[in-house]
Design brief:
This protein is mainly α and about 325 residues long. It is built from 17 helices and seven strands. The radius of gyration is 22 Å and the shape is globular.
Length: about 325
């Protein structure tokens, strides 16, 4: 998909959006067209870096109290795990802001794969086989992944005509809005998903199945475009998406590792692995304790990403992995 768009004169963002949408079609066991799509874009011409918060929030009716009363304090399997689909808005936002092609052009490879079918990858077939009992619990999933009651096999042609129609509906809305300019036409494609016929179908399914998503949840959703979180690793500038994902954990890990001579330790030596594992453990402990949606939680971002904090935390790794060993 990416190569096709680049060959047609598209830029890297056009190609990335095309690849992302297509991935949701050809790896439906791992990715969803209506799932998440955290995006980071670096503009070589201006040397600016931006992120798109392609992660949806919970429906407004979801609350701690709801899950305590209805689900014994757990988030159960099934439709109650659904958050607002963020990927369509994220792809359309990136495309309108930094791309050059239309939604119809970048979604064409995905539509083709969904409508005509594609050979299932070995990895996907393995996952479907391993999780067949989970798929079997949901009739709509079983129909796609377990036709005739058996898991799909590697190389088998998978057709997703309903998904193709979803993407085509977005492309049709864009075509009707062409007179309003490229960005507004892409927004029209996006709005069909969040405010139009696709949103109506999503909410109707939730009503039937006991889900929580409402038209207001979808219509009120909008991704955020913002600068990235950053650090330096010696002479390298590193950027990730924000604390609404786990990207900053990478920055914390690099801050912890910065003083060490990793090459001297020897790749995959006992000390090398000890150091990496302990740095990862510390960063992910902070992720569990402090990370969250900045719109809902106060995240001590500056402190977590500071070199001084890394120095203090580094003492917990132990003398066996000290920088001067």
């Amino acid at each position: 998909a990416a190569a096709r768009i680049l060959e047609a004169g598209g830029n890297a963002v056009d190609a990335g959006v095309a690849a992302g949408i297509c991935l949701g079609v050809v790896h439906p066991d791992m990715v969803s067209v209506a799932g998440v799509a955290p995006i980071i874009v670096h503009l070589a011409r201006t040397r600016e870096t931006w992120t798109v918060s392609g992660v949806g929030g919970w429906p407004r009716a979801a609350s701690i109290e709801f899950f305590r009363k209805r689900c014994e304090g757990q988030i159960p399997q099934g439709i109650l795990r659904t958050v607002v689909p963020a990927a369509p808005d994220a792809w359309c936002t990136a495309l309108a802001r930094w791309g050059t092609k239309s939604f119809a052009e970048v979604s064409a490879p995905a539509i083709e794969c969904a409508e005509r079918g594609f050979p299932l990858a070995e990895f996907s077939a393995m996952l479907i086989h391993a999780n067949q009992e989970r798929y079997r619990r949901w009739p709509t999933s079983a129909a796609l992944y377990l036709p005739g009651g058996r898991p799909r096999q590697a190389g088998e042609r998978v057709v997703q005509s309903e998904l193709a129609e979803t993407l085509k509906a977005m492309a049709r809305a864009e075509a009707k809005a062409q007179g309003r300019g490229r960005a507004e036409a892409i927004k029209a494609a996006r709005d069909v998903f969040y405010k139009g016929e696709i949103a109506a179908a999503i909410c109707d399914y939730h009503r039937r199945e006991g889900g929580l998503l409402t038209p207001a949840d979808l219509a009120g959703f909008e991704v955020e475009v913002s600068p990235p979180c950053t650090t330096t690793f010696r002479d390298i500038d590193v950027a990730t998406c924000g604390f609404w994902c786990q990207g900053p954990a990478l920055l914390q890990i690099l801050n912890l590792l910065e003083p060490y001579d990793l090459a001297r330790l020897g790749h995959n030596s006992a000390r090398y692995l000890h150091l990496l594992i302990e740095a990862i453990k510390l960063a992910f402990a902070d992720r569990e304790a402090y990370y969250g949606d900045p719109a809902q939680a106060k995240v001590p971002a500056d402190g977590l990403l500071s070199k001084a904090y890394a120095e203090a935390r580094r003492t917990l790794i132990g003398k066996r992995a000290s920088p001067d060993m």
